[in-house]
Structure formats: C-alpha cells, structure tokens
Design goal:
Length: about 290
C-alpha cells in the first residue's frame, strides 16, 4: 500500500565532512552556514514547503546541534520579546519543530547512505518517505515537491537527476534510462560512482529521493559497494526488479555544498537574491582584479 501523501523526510547527516576539515572538527557539514542559515535549515524548509510533517535526522553522537537548532529556545525568545525584535522573534519561532515531529537517530560510524536510511525503519513504519541530502542545496524551485508530484502519479520510487560533465561521473550515482516524458526517465540501471569509461550516461543522481517502504527489505539484501559502504544506489537498483524507478530532471539549480567551490557559489547565489548585497559584492569582486 502506498501513502496518500508523503509526510516523512529523512536527513542523513552523520558524515565526517572530511573535505571541510578543520572547521568540521567542531561543526558538522550540515550546520555550516549559507549566509545566516545552516545548510540543514534550507533542506528542512524545502521539506516543510513540500508538506512534510515528520523530520528524522540520522546523525552521530557528537552532532546534536541540529536538535537545538529546531527546538524552542525559551531564553532567546524571551530576550527578543523584551527587546521588541518582533520580526526576528517570528523568524526564530518559525524554526521550531514540535518534539513529536522531530526524531534523532544515531549512526555510530558512517557506513553509507543505505545504512543510515536502514536505521530509520522503526520510525518510518509502513510509510513511503523522502530522503534529502542537505549538502546538495537546490535553489530556484522546490525539488522535493517536484519529485512528490511524480510520485503522486506513479506511486513508485522517484529520484532527482541532473546532467553532469562526463569527466565528473565518478563523483555520482549514474543512471541508464529511457526518456518517458519531458524530464521524466524510466531507470534501467544505476551505478554508484562508476569509472568514466563504465558510465552508461552523464545523468547523475542528486540527493533527493522518494522511496517506497519496501526499500528497507532491499537494503538488507544489498552488499557492501563503492567506497566499502552500503550504497542506496545499489539498494534502489535491486528494488527496480520489482518496482519501477523514475528519474526526474528537476528544474532548480543544484549547488554541491560538499565541496569548497560549490559552497562558495551557493553563498554568492544566495547573497545575490538581495539587491543591495548583489550591487556591493559585484563591485567588490570587480575591484579585486585578478
Ligand atoms: C551520494 C549518493 C550518490 C549521489 C550523490 C549526490 O554520494 O551516493 O549516488 O550522486 O550523493 O550528491 P556522496 O556524495 O554522498 O558520496
């Protein structure tokens, strides 16, 4: 049985963030800020806007900051109230997620995306659900909502995909597919981080998935894959023998905030939404010269 509505989102955030050391010694990658908000906030906001009601963070024991960030902070709220900073107060209150709708699950050692997802089974129960990787920041359109729209029609697995340069395929899960309709692909094969010569296409998986509940069954059958980890790409491929798997070429722009260049581009793109900042920064970069 499928859901009437996708209501649960899983956020795997247990990674070590080695590409951002040393800052990630004390702050997890998902809590790094794009302007004044952590990456995780953008991901949660996307989920909320797409109708998600329950938020599950899979993290490690050291990384409990996300819980604080989305929980009520009475001291801060009464301070802002006293200082009559009403707009700020509203903004801060909007972040609060009710205790019953916010779950933290611990993944002791990073053993892959599929392992992180497997740990959510007893909370997700029988529902189909979505997975959002916060370091894939997608601006300009709500990718989760777009995938849910496809799920609502197909009642099957849907994955966000985008075209990448052929030389970069080894950083992604890559799909082999046939075009079904504009921007919708029927997936025949999926390979996690293939060598350039083995990649069946340049259509890459990004960190947005709508998964059927039986994915748990397939994760349990999945063997250790690329990087010595349990890969969700492999589990979804296994499931494709039974369920259709759809790729959706989403319409927003994706920033790979797991690497420094992507992260910096996301900062600039976000800052440029403010006319004044845009003008100032453009002038600043021009004067930096080269
Ligand atoms: C994960 C997935 C990969 C996907 C990528 C998108 O890899 O395993 O299939 O293409 O996210 O960001 P990671 O970058 O976490 O190694």
């Amino acid at each position: 049985m499928h859901n009437k509505k996708i209501k649960i989102a899983v956020f795997p955030i247990a990674g070590m963030g080695t590409r951002f050391l040393p800052i990630t010694k004390t702050i997890s990658k998902e809590m790094l800020n794009i302007l004044d908000r952590p990456l995780l906030d953008y991901a949660v906001e996307e989920a909320k806007a797409a109708g998600i009601e329950t938020f599950i963070f899979v993290t490690n024991k050291e990384n409990t900051k996300p819980l604080d960030y989305f929980s009520k902070n009475t001291k801060l709220e009464s301070f802002l109230k006293k200082k009559k900073k009403i707009d700020l107060l509203k903004q801060i209150k909007k972040l609060n997620i009710k205790k019953k709708n916010l779950k933290i699950i611990f993944q002791d050692k990073p053993s892959g995306l599929a392992d992180a997802i497997l740990r959510t089974e007893k909370y997700v129960k029988k529902e189909d659900f979505c997975v959002i990787l916060p370091d894939d920041l997608i601006l300009g359109a709500n990718c989760t909502q777009e995938l849910i729209n496809v799920y609502n029609k197909k009642k099957s697995t849907v994955i966000g995909v985008m075209e990448v340069d052929k030389k970069d395929v080894s950083s992604y899960g890559i799909i082999e597919s046939s075009v079904f309709k504009k921007n919708i692909y029927k997936i025949k094969n999926m390979i996690e981080k293939p060598k350039v010569k083995d990649a069946p296409s340049n259509l890459a998986i990004v960190g947005r998935y709508i998964l059927l509940n039986d994915i748990y069954k397939f994760i349990k059958k999945t063997k250790i894959g690329s990087g010595g980890e349990l890969q969700i790409t492999d589990a979804i491929f296994l499931s494709s023998k039974l369920n259709e798997v759809w790729g959706y070429k989403f319409s927003g722009k994706r920033y790979d905030c797991g690497n420094k260049i992507g992260f910096l581009k996301a900062q600039i793109a976000t800052a440029f939404k403010d006319k004044e900042i845009k003008k100032e920064i453009k002038k600043f970069i021009k004067n930096l010269g080269g």
